[in-house]
Fold these 2 entries.
Entry 1:
Amino acid sequence: MEIMSTHLLHPVTLVANEMLKPRLHRLTFTSEAFADFPLSGPDEFFGLVMPKEGREFTPFSIDGVNIRAAVAALPEETRPNLRWYTIRSLDRQRKLIDVDVVTHGDSGPGSRWIRRARPGDTAGMFTCPALWTPPTGSQLLVADASALPALRHILAYQRANAPEALAETHVVAVVTSHDEVEDGLAEQWGTAVRSLDVVEAAKTLETARTLTLLRERFSPAPPRSVWVSGEGDLTKAVRALAVKGWGLPAEKVVWVPFWFHGRARP
Ligand SMILES: Cc1cc2nc3c(=O)[nH]c(=O)nc-3n(C[C@H](O)[C@H](O)[C@H](O)COP(=O)(O)OP(=O)(O)OC[C@H]3O[C@@H](n4cnc5c(N)ncnc54)[C@H](O)[C@@H]3O)c2cc1C
């Protein structure tokens, strides 16, 4: 696996913004830096620096400071917004990165920018690490709509780099609306992985439904590692089940709160 030694702020240009579903956009960015982009893993995320409406992205110094502090130090009238997204796919030859984003109207700066972004718009991409680690035995991957793009990238990455691991991979997709989920997960991956379950639940009931399924399916024979990303309560509850209920060592459980019901992610 390639490890990035430093974080960088790349100027990027949007080349496409495709609405895959009413609330799922696929953004395609290009940059000269993508020709030799060192991907640290399939759920590598980045900070998307989004200029204010009508403005171009202007590079700024991030030397020795945290990106949030660097953004906060910019003048209010030109200060861009910052949100986090996951690389869905990287094409070094064509210098393209795809990112799939769940939108939710104009209630947050990320969703608002993505709904309006047009080819030719500029932004900044602040590189960050991957969080998933290659498993040494059976693994459970759990994701809601915001994290299913990352989960699909993990599956594609394993197929390319360690296809035997797929036979030890259990997938649980948590879906509260098909308007925000790319079609075809079960068709594409259902026979390749050890098991694939889709939990369908109304919003705010998804955590309870997911825990019920996980207890029934896995408590008799828990997986050796867990990766869970998505809504904050969901990730916290799955982590608690894995560590306290199944006795997994904390380092075998990667949990990443992507967003929170009713409040912006800090
Ligand atoms: C490491 C990491 C990787 C991520 N990767 C992705 C990714 O690849 N694709 C992706 O779609 N998201 C991803 N996210 C989540 C993304 O950053 C959040 O959706 C984002 O914070 C929303 O920003 P916003 O400005 O639109 O809304 P915010 O200002 O954060 O929130 C405003 C309101 O919108 C609500 N809200 C936020 N997200 C959602 C949602 N998904 N559904 C319904 N309501 C919501 C909040 O509860 C809040 O009330 C990732 C987050 C992290 C931390």
Entry 2:
Amino acid sequence: MSEIYQGKAIVDRLDISVLNPGEYHLWFRATPNGLGQDQLLPVSVFKAAKEGPRVLVSAGIHGDELNGVLTAQQIMREAGPKIEQGALIVLPMINLSGVLHHTRDFIPSDPDASPVNLNRHFPGKQNGNGAQRFLHAFWNNLLMGNIDYCLDLHTQTRGATYPLYVFADYRIPAALNMARWMQPDVILNDPGDTGVFETVLNEHDIPTITVEVGAGKIHQPELVSRAVEGIKAVLGHFEMMAHSAAETSGSTIEGDTLISVRAETGGMAIPEVELGDYVEKGALICRQFDAFGHPVKEYHAPDSGHVLSVMQDPLREPGTLLVRLIK
Ligand SMILES: [Zn+2]
């Protein structure tokens, strides 16, 4: 008999192939925390009677990126009951400790361990530290064998913002298709990075895109509903649900080069540009002020490009992002 928590079954392993068609809301038991209490991840599965693609919508690998969490939950409510073919799996909150601590990182109980950016450690390690063991259980007992495609939801790191922005590895046609079907503001041709969820899933032949929905720790309803519509368009293209494609705005910017302008000294910084602006090489993009409020530094665009990210938190030490451009 399975254990029940808040009326929902706890599972140590998920195998979608043995589920009857229907809607399931489960707790996945990853690893225990330092009190020995189970870390229970919410998992929703919507399985149609007809065979088809199995698509994962995941969020909250970074615990303070709440527009992603809200997008995943809205997809679950709006698209879940309409799945006619294949299966939709939604994991709205992966990094539970980070969500509770208002941080992007996984917070270990081990006094010898620092907070961990989970999105550099996939697919985890069986005998590693707490974060690696958590990911190992997640990867092997929840994901493997259950999914064909993934859309992983994030936001810009707190203190700066993005528009609706998708990372896709252009060498993988299915990933590029998903990115374009979403009709985001910007797509980056991204070859990937070691240990990133998107990259490691792509290496396992599960085409995946990373979707950035604005800024961390705040709710941006307009961006969330655009992300929801974009994901529905992807599910429509996969013929998993009836949905007309998102209207082609024709305004998606695609690029492969990022230019990050970082603070060279400390002080309060005020940007002179907005998301989406096109700036010419040499244009003033940010001004910085010292502790007395006196101008201390002006920053100019090192090259021409569109503004992809702008800082929102004015407190900037040397090396902190001010403005990011895409070419
Ligand atoms: Zn993130």
